[in-house]
Amino acid sequence: MQALTELVLLKTKKGWFTKREALDWLGKGGAAFDGVLKRALATGEVLRVARGLYCLRSDFLAFKLDPHVFAPLICEPSYLSFESALAYRGWIPEAVFSFASASLGRSREFETPFGVFSYRRVPQESFYAGVERVELETGGAFFVAEPLKAIADLVYLNGYDWDSSEPVLESLRVEWDNLRELKGADFEGIEGCYRSGRVKNFLSGLRKDLGQ
Fold first, then answer.
1. In this predicted model, what pLDDT tens digit does every residue of 62-118 receive, in sequence order?
2. Cα(125)–Cα(190) distance, rounded to whole angstroms?
3. What residue ranges do the domains of the chain occupy?
4. For 3-60, CATH number?
């Protein structure tokens, strides 16, 4: 077992770590640190998730690592949204094998051992309104949009001219029973987030359909 692998197992139970954490644990940097990291990566005991972000190989862990935890670490600020958030919450039937997030920066994608993490710019007045922070028992946390926020982000991102519940039911295949779970507070919590007329029109039309 590589020295860095042993150190990670000793210092943290979450299974992932940043370069800054590893530097603190080792107490040395420069070529010495690079050599330790390079050897751990070469054996496959440590995997590089993104720049400055690493994790242990799964067989060194007593639990299954939840890759959602990497989303806010790769790009900040961000939160899981769009179809990824709807699938996470069980609102759409299709499985989603990528991690799509809304962010305030430019759009970009990252290839990782766990799949593609993509980030799409969605400018907002209150970025984390309608967003839940999910704490993991194994350590770390990530942010995921509530269903209405995820759909509103989709309307913004794709420029949809939606003004009712119909395209949500037909295009996204969201069930009517799910939509009926939405309350007035869900709409009020995010209505002030967007300047987009399309999003405002959609939220107004959907709220009218639901009698909110």
1. 999 999 999 999 999 999 999 999 999 999 987 778 899 999 999 999 999 999 999
2. 9
3. 3-60, 67-209
4. 1.10.10
